[in-house]
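Supplementary Methods, section 5.1.

A reviewer requested that the exact input to the structure prediction be made available. We therefore reproduce it here, unchanged from the version used in the analyses.
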Amino acid sequence: MLRLGLAALLSLSFAGQAMALSCLPWGPTDAYLSADKAETRFSVVQGHLRFDEKLLPKVDWNHQEDTPAITRIPAHVTGKALNRTGFKAPFSQDLVLEVLCFGPWCAGAADGGDYLMFIEHRDDGLVLQVDPCGGYAFSVNSRKVQKQMQQCFNGGDCAPSDKGH
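The structure derived from this sequence is encoded token-by-token as follows.
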């Protein structure tokens, strides 16, 4: 399920052969609010993502139409899940990294990267979805963002990004 309403706005402008992708501002609180409204459950985890980077989609610019919309990659996350007292609960799980492409623009991620992740609990397992405009993984690891996520989790102020909302 794509959450393009909040996650991304695709803007294709044609100047000769050039096209551009334009994304709405999207930050951790936006992801938290989106996950909170979803029909499925999410875990918020600060940790390391492990997967085979060779499996990330590659765009053949001569055959952009062949770019897959979704690539599912086996992955593993190790870190701490958010609970009422902060990022304290040990988390170590296999999951699927779901990499989305919007036309020729594809999400990226780094094997071993430290991410703030919103991991979806689907009927068929755990999924971390990333897209060219961000998705549900952020390469932030600051006390400020962690405190903000704890505040959201505990029902406090959880305002969306200042820009564009």
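The two ends are 22 Å apart (CA to CA). These observations are discussed further in the main text.
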